[in-house]
Amino acid sequence: MIPYGRQSINASDLKAVADVLQSDWLTTGPAVIQFEEAIAEYVGARASIAVNSGTSALHVAYAAAGIRGGDEVITTPLTFVATAATAALQGARIVFADIDESTGNLSLEAARDAVTPRTRAITAVDYAGVPVDGRAFSDLAHESNALFIEDAAHAIGSTRAGRRVGEQADITTFSFFPTKNMTTAEGGAVVALDSEVELAGRRFRNHGLVRESDLLRWPNEGAWHQEVHSFGLNYRLPDVLAALGLSQLKRLETFKQRRAEVHRQYNEAFATVDGLRIPGCPTDASPTWHLYPLRVPADRRREIFDRLRAAGVGVQVNYIPVYWHPVFADLGYRRGLCPVAEEYYRQEISLPMYAGLANDQVERVIETVLQIVEG
C-alpha cells in the first residue's frame, strides 16, 4: 500500500534524537529553546512557542487571544475539526463561512459577510498548503475589531506574494504531525506578532504558571515558589521531539521541492481528463503541498476511493465539513450551511503526497487513477 502521507526520517534525524536521549534533558529544555528560535527565524517571526500538537497550538492561540464565552469565531468548514473545536472549548460560538471553490480556502467575501459585532477572530486555514491572502484577511479582521488567526497546519514553508506564512497573521499555528511537511512525531508551534499575546500563550502552554518575582502576589515565599494567576494546560513539547524538529527543519526546503515535483506530475496527468479537477493555486503563491486534493465526479467518489484503496493506493478524504460532526449538529448546525464546501467535500480525494514518494510510485498512482476513472 502506498500511503497518502508519510514522514521522511534519515540518519541525521536519528542521531539528533539519540543525542538528546543521552543528555540530561528529555522534556522541555535547551532543544526546545533552539527549536523555537529556529522556527521563528525560518518564518520571519519575532518568536515562536513550541507545543505538543497542532491542536494544542490552536487552543493556545485562542486562549492567548482572549477568546471566551459570547465571542464569535469565523472559520472554514473544510478543515480538521480541531480548528473549530478548540475555539468552542473556549466558549466561542463558531460561525462557519463558505470556501473558495478553486483552492478550498476560506472565502474572503464569505468571511466578510459573516462578521458581526461579536466577531473576535477570523481563522483561515491554508488548505493543502496553499496560503490564504494574509494581507486581505488581516485587514478584514482589524477593520472588524478582531484578530486574524492563520491555521497553517498544512503550510510551513509556503509563501504568498513573497512573504512566508507566519509573517502576517496576528497568530499563526503550525502542526508537525508525521504526515505534515516536517515532523516532530507529535508537535506544533504558535507564532504571535504581539508580545503580550505571546506571553499569554507561553503561560497557557505551561499550566498558567507565573515565576517572575515582580508579578508574584507572595514574592517572599522562597526560591521554589510559583503561582497560577489564570488557568492553563500542559501543552509542552519535550526536548527529544524538538531535536527531531530541528533536524527536519534543515531539510524543509528539500521536502518542499519534492512535494512540488509530485504535484506537477499529478497536474500534468490529470489536468485534461474529463471529470477530474486539479487543485487551484493563486499565481503569487508558492505552496509546500501537504495534500493533493483531486476532485472527481461526486456520484463516483465512493467507488473511485474504494477501488484505489483496493489497488494499494492509500487515498484519504480531507475533510468532512466540520459542522456535519454530531457534536456540532447537536448544537444546532445543519447541513446545507456552506454549499460550496459541501460540494467540494463530495468530490475530494487526497492522493499520496510526501517527500519520500518515489517516481515509480507516482506513476503507479497516476496509472491507477486513470484506469479507474476512464476505464
Structure description:
This is Aminotransferase class V-fold PLP-dependent enzyme. GO terms for molecular function: pyridoxal phosphate binding; transaminase activity. One of its GO terms (biological process) is polysaccharide biosynthetic process. A hairpin with a 2-residue loop joins strand 6 and strand 7 (163-164). The model has no long low-confidence stretch (mean pLDDT 97). It contains 13 helices and 14 strands. It folds into two domains: 11-249, Aspartate Aminotransferase, domain 2 (3-Layer(aba) Sandwich), CATH 3.40.640.10; 252-374, Alpha-Beta Complex (Aspartate Aminotransferase, domain 1). The chain is α/β, with parallel strands linked by helices. It is globular and about 80 Å long. A seven-stranded mixed beta sheet has the order 1-9-8-5-4-2-3. It has a three-stranded antiparallel beta sheet with strand order 7-6-12, with no helix packed on it. The longest helix has 19 residues, at 252-270. Helix 1 runs antiparallel to helix 8 (239-249), helix 3 (54-64) crosses helix 7 (195-205) and helix 9 (252-270) runs parallel beside helix 13.
Sketch the topology as an H/E string, one letter per element. HHEHEHEHEHEEEEEHEEHHEEHHHEH
CATH class of the largest domain: Alpha Beta
The CATH architecture of the largest domain comes to: 3-Layer(aba) Sandwich
Mean pLDDT: 97
The name CATH uses for the topology of the largest domain is: Aspartate Aminotransferase, domain 2
In angstroms, what is the radius of gyration? 21 Å
